[in-house]
Amino acid sequence: MGVLTGCTQCIKYMLFFFNFVFWLAGGVILGLALWLRHDNKTSNLLLLQFEDNQAPNTFYISVYILIAVGTVMMFVGFLGCYGAIQESQCLLGTFFTCLVILFACEVAAGIWGFMNRETISKELINFYDSAYIKAIETSDSQTKQAAVAVVKVFHDTLDCCGKGSDSPLFNKDTLCKKSTDEQTTNCHVKLKELFTQKQHIIGLAALVIAVIMIFEMIFTMVLCCAIRNTAY
Fold this sequence. Notes:
- By secondary structure, the chain is mainly alpha-helical.
- The protein contains 8 helices and 2 strands.
- The protein has a two-stranded antiparallel sheet with strand order 1-2.
- Strand 1 (49-50) and strand 2 form a beta hairpin.
- Helix 1 (6-38) runs antiparallel to helix 8 and helix 2 (40-46) runs antiparallel to helix 6.
- The longest helix is centred in the last third of the chain and has 45 residues, at 187-231.
- The radius of gyration is 25 Å and the shape is rod-shaped.
- It is found in: Membrane.
């Protein structure tokens, strides 16, 4: 095997640096996913049950995908670092293939996420509304008591009350944290804000990772060509 010199040597270390950043980014993604999974607000809401129905878990599916992506990124980043230092065409080729697959999966996930960006909040709003309707019933029953417990969790977790124009109904009851005349944000708005904020965090992280992968694919191809040329 020949020895890399000049610009190709520089590309080799740049690729190692980007792979190291990619490995660190995988750790950050994994940590972010675990934080989203165990965040108090989302956990309190998504673990609720009402009338044998579990709160929608579409958000957790996205989080589990992130956990898998973060783990794979750390493995692929290590593979790229080792391949760059060893100047191995086989390892770099495997690394490039993994990058292409990851990039394709990220684009597909991004398209799916954009098309279903409001699904998570809508599902949880519908779940809240079904409990809300039962909670304001005049007749006292076990179903109403269960609904009141679910609605209280929403109100305490999100610091909200009601679902819009019906909020004054709760101001006269014990379901709201505050029984004053202060205007309280309705829970529909709070739910949309909660998941929109988390989706923006996920989207920003995905964009940064995509940019890093593009540079890595370019440097990997250049380095592979340089290694093959020096071999002859």
